[in-house]
Specification:
Elements lengths: L7 H7 L5 E6 L12 H14 L29 H17 L4 E6 L7 H10 L5 E6 L4 H10 L32 H5 L3 H8 L12 H21 L1
Parallel strand pairs: 1-2, 2-3
The protein binds zinc ion.
Family: Belongs to the creatininase superfamily.
Cofactor: Zn(2+)
GO biological process, one term: riboflavin biosynthetic process
Length: about 230
């Protein structure tokens, strides 16, 4: 149930029967030939589909995350760590005030992982409220599914190329790009990083069969449903 399709009165009624809510976390950044919004599209869609049978409200995805290394690619917006701390605190403080007690962040972007520490810190001073961060793409079952199809998979490669993240009329290269050196990348400034990454794919094929992608998708949706059940 998307928050964007509810009014406040409906949400207030929901709160008399349940205290769970989902907030998807995304990013707007280069994804090679795929949409700049890949991480946001995937986080919101996978969270919404997973929540559907539970009737749990899902907020609109937070479209910006922390992605400093891609700052030289047009369309990339990176929030500072300072901003992100404030963002997570503000979201949690508001949800707490309104009566939500079990809060799930479904994260679609690796650079947002420090949110785990921010959440942990917030929970120290807010006992009685469960907050969980779920990185949907590298959760155990989903990651295992990806690796079973093709272990060479990373940012902007085939593993992010779903029917809902690719762009009409944009052809994908046929090659299997060699995996980059992540340690080397971390030493580069944004200009050097762009020169090193080229189109932006970290490594692997650019596209695989849709049957493979749907199998990964169903695994990810099911894995989030298990998380929701245990929240
Ligand atoms: Zn991504």
């Amino acid at each position: 149930m998307k928050i964007s399709e509810m009014n406040w009165q409906q949400l207030e009624r929901y709160l008399t029967t349940d205290d769970r809510v989902i907030v998807p976390l995304g990013s707007t950044e280069q994804h090679a030939y795929l949409s700049l919004s890949v991480d946001s599209i995937l986080a919101e869609k996978v969270a919404t589909e997973a929540a559907e049978p539970f009737g749990i409200p899902v907020f609109p995805v937070m479209p910006f995350g922390m992605t400093p290394a891609f700052s030289d690619y047009p369309g990339t917006i990176s929030l500072s760590m300072q901003t992100y701390i404030g963002l997570i605190y503000d979201i949690l403080n508001n949800l707490k005030r309104q009566g939500f007690r079990r809060i799930l962040f479904v994260n679609g972007h690796g650079g947002n992982s420090p949110a785990q520490n921010i959440i942990g810190e917030w929970m120290v001073n807010n006992p009685g409220i469960t907050v969980q961060l779920h990185n949907w793409w590298n959760a155990p079952k989903t990651w295992e599914k990806v690796a079973s199809i093709d272990p060479v998979a990373s940012h902007a490669s085939w593993m992010e190329n779903f029917p809902w993240t690719r762009l009409p009329g944009v052809a994908m290269p046929d090659e299997r790009k060699p995996m980059l050196d992540l340690v080397a990348l971390r030493k580069l400034d944004p200009t050097q990083a762009r020169a090193y990454l080229g189109d932006g794919n970290y490594g692997g094929f650019y596209q695989r069969a849709d049957d493979d992608m749907l199998a990964i998708w169903h695994t990810a949706v099911g894995e989030i449903r298990d998380v929701i059940s245990a929240l």
